[in-house]
């Protein structure tokens, strides 16, 4: 058997704990591709060096994480419409040295909810907590999926207003009543993430959320945050963030390989990797 060759990777800083190579290689193995994926440590200001490496090593594609998502928008040969709208790239595709940037987070979010729970977003009132890159991608995807209203709650009023402006007439700044009224609530902040100074914080009061709502936490470490655990104890449907990670990666696999991504195998690999870290 020939030795697998590196054809993909994940770039950012810090990158040592990224799950992306695990997801990529689970997909490559299921698809019968002799490819490997590796972690690429590139920090702020090193976007051009990353693109040169992709060309020099003839990589097929690279996942992109912080702090390079915004930087690459203005360095690539071409940027897809969604990535340009969000001013954020999380996937680079190389074809004969021509490098294209995509944003797969929003589409991955919508695909995940439909895959896990057949959630349909049309006509729903949605509350997005946060105003960073993940919040922007999710809010834009909710808008594209014809949510009736998207309200934004964030610590930075300026960034919240910037996100609302991106959404147009569907978006507005959240009030206290919106937590109780929302059909779908998305935590797009690091609150609850293991190993951070916000590990024991909650994005909003679980007791205020309607029992008929769906709660979505983009945090995936731990697999179930304290916020989700309290909600599920009350009977509120909840989803942790590992599924979004897998589904946005699945879109990238399809862009790189042209084949349908093996989502069950990718989910299994991701869960096993996270259980190994706990």
Low-pLDDT segments, ≥5 res: none
CATH topology of the largest domain: Rossmann fold
CATH architecture of the largest domain: 3-Layer(aba) Sandwich
Order of strands, main sheet, comes to: 2-1-3-5-6-4
- Our Rg estimate from Cα atoms comes to 19 Å
What portion of the residues fall into strands of 2 or more residues?
A: 15-25%
Compressed to H and E, one letter per element, the order equals EHEHEEHEEHEHEHEHEEHEHH
Which percent range fits the helix content?
Answer: 25-40%
Count of DSSP H/I helices: 10
Major sheet size, sense and barrel closure: 6 strands, mixed
Question: What is the distance, rounded to the nearest whole angstrom, between the alpha carbons of the first and last residues?
Answer: 34 Å
